[in-house]
Write a structure and sequence with these properties.
7 strands, 5-stranded parallel sheet, Rossmann fold, alpha/beta, two-stranded antiparallel sheet, 13% strand, binds zinc ion
Length: 233
Amino acid sequence: MGETSALVLFSGGQDSTTCLAWALDRFDRVETVGFDYRQRNRVELDARPRVRAALAAAFPRWAGKLGDDHVLDLAALAAVSESAMTRDVAIAARADGLPNTFVPGRNLLFLIFAAALAYRRGIARLATGVCETDFSGYPDCRDDAIKALQVALNLGMATRLVIETPLMWIDKAATWRLARDLGGEKLVDLIREETHTCYEGDRAHRHDWGYGCGHCPACALRAAGYGAFRAAG
Ligand code: ZN
């Protein structure tokens, strides 16, 4: 087995873009997959081809490794869930403490579809930017959930699929630092300029950490992480 390959779950946000750069740095061939689950804001989906093109243009050593992009339609997820990500309601904490941006089963479903796609593409490695450290309250981003799913997928598909989670144990400041380690200030700038994280889909307000409303939980996390990253030097 000479060539190594990976399929990256790529949303167009900061974490999945850093995860994509991490995979491009390590593997010979890297494909990407995104999901259209009728998210309220299409901004992230729009960011995906832009980020891929910017990565290929800015990093010739990665351009040749960047393979096909796939977008899978998961409209059924919006049909079964009541979430601020798919419905036009204000972002708030729910009675059980989870944010109402939580779409139950979302990451699990993404990984199952990604695994089925990887199976067809002959890829034995998935990479996802989920993180338990700064975690936004999403239980399906936790290490135990991912590990359990990896076992279930391999039992159910008779494979030896590995789910790579390079961001699992690092906080948002360290995620910016990882981007700088992988691609220098050029990659940090690309992530600030091209990726999208804001829950409100705001591309009108530019901050030193990128575009966003500046108030939603995703903006707050991204801004605090960037501040800590720059403060540490
Ligand atoms: Zn925001």
